[in-house]
Amino acid sequence: DAGVIQSPRHEVTEMGQEVTLRCKPISGHNSLFWYRQTMMRGLELLIYFNNNVPIDDSGMPEDRFSAKMPNASFSTLKIQPSEPRDSAVYFCASSLGLASETQYFGPGTRLLVL
Amino acid sequence: GENVEQHPSTLSVQEGDSAVIKCTYSDSASNYFPWYKQELGKGPQLIIDIRSNVGEKKDQRIAVTLNKTAKHFSLHITETQPEDSAVYFCAASRGNNRLAFGKGNQVVVIP
């Protein structure tokens, strides 16, 4: 299996621009998670989906952030408009489902907002 | 919500020695405790996990111990090697698919 795939791996953008991060979970996994990692706050859960349905989005920082999962093999995290404080590494992870705790992480997208 | 703390933040060990990282958690309902290893430029990778019905689990040079009464769990790495140098994260979950992560420990193995 190829594991969780994320794109792009690096993104540099200017403040105010829209940023879209993409994730392909492991085939057969029913749960998908978006995390943000910073030095100050560590790994924070932003949102997670089960069977393509958002279950908990309480970690989404504000309305500028939105996430979708149109099908079992694809999810996006969008930031519009982006701000310098959004600079971080964003990870996508997937797991078999609610009955399985083990989460498998992708390589991450390193985002820099200038 | 769950609060997970890791100590020490940085740990340096001589190659061949053992390394121990300790985590404490706050939610007594937590029942799943994984450890992740993150190498530079990569995502966290699960290395071992333990559930609350077990006190210890071992996998080759890595072991995890759990003390539910004291609400802490520890990662033990024996015979450390340079490739063990990484950031290690502990996490806790109460079975709701939400993992609460600690801030991470930087482990440096000195050749």
Overview of the molecule:
The complex is a heterodimer of chains A (114) and B (111). In chain A, the strands form two sheets. In chain A, strands 2, 4, 5, 6, 9, 10 and 11 form a seven-stranded mixed β-sheet that branches. Chain A has a four-stranded antiparallel β-sheet with strand order 1-3-8-7, with no helix packed on it. Chain A has strands at 5-7, 10-13, 19-24, 31-38, 42-50, 53-56, 65-71, 74-79, 88-95, 104-105, 109-113. Chain A has no helices and eleven strands. Chain A is globular. In chain A, 0% of the residues lie in helices and 54% in strands. The model of chain A has no long low-confidence stretch (mean pLDDT 93). Chain A is an all-beta fold. By secondary structure, chain B is mainly β. Chain B is 0% helix and 55% strand. Chain B is built from no helices and eleven strands. Chain B has strands spanning 4-7, 10-14, 19-25, 32-38, 45-51, 56-59, 62-67, 72-77, 86-92, 100-101, 105-110. In chain B, the strands form two sheets. In chain B, strands 2, 4, 5, 9, 10 and 11 form a six-stranded mixed β-sheet that branches.
Helix content of chain B: under 10%
The main pleated sheet of chain A reads as: 7 strands, mixed
Gap from first CA to last CA of chain A: 36 Å
Q: Ranges of chain B with pLDDT <50 over ≥5 residues? A: none
**Derived structural class of chain B:** mainly beta
**Greatest contact between two chains:** A-B, 21 and 20 residues
Percent of residues in β-strands of chain B = over 45%
Please bin the fraction of helical residues of chain A.
Answer: under 10%
Would you report the number of β strands of chain B?
11
Q: What's the short version?
A:
The complex is a heterodimer of chains A (114) and B (111). Chain A is mainly beta and 114 residues long.
Chart the SSEs and their pairings:
The complex is a heterodimer of chains A (114) and B (111).
Chain A: E1 5-7, E2 10-13, E3 19-24, E4 31-38, E5 42-50, E6 53-56, E7 65-71, E8 74-79, E9 88-95, E10 104-105, E11 109-113
Parallel strand pairs in A: 2-11
Antiparallel strand pairs in A: 1-3, 3-8, 4-5, 4-9, 5-6, 7-8, 9-10, 9-11
Chain B: E1 4-7, E2 10-14, E3 19-25, E4 32-38, E5 45-51, E6 56-59, E7 62-67, E8 72-77, E9 86-92, E10 100-101, E11 105-110
Parallel strand pairs in B: 2-11
Antiparallel strand pairs in B: 1-3, 3-8, 4-5, 4-9, 6-7, 7-8, 9-10, 9-11
